[in-house]
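quick one before i forget lol
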Amino acid sequence: WSSDVCSSDLRDFGEWLKQIRNERGLSLNKVYEQTGITDSRLSKAENGSWNILKLEELKSLASLYEVSIIY
């Protein structure tokens, strides 16, 4: 991400992550079971601190959610 990304963009990304998870009917615990991303880390990401996730974790989420990693 460039330095031009504002905090509202990060919140939007987090909200998008949560929306996709909910649309897939996945709980935080279910995502943990399938990706190894703890519910605490994913919750933080969904609430705007997406940069807490590593690239490999984002790839795992993209695969699980069946979406492109490009946002």
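fyi The longest helix spans residues 7-23.
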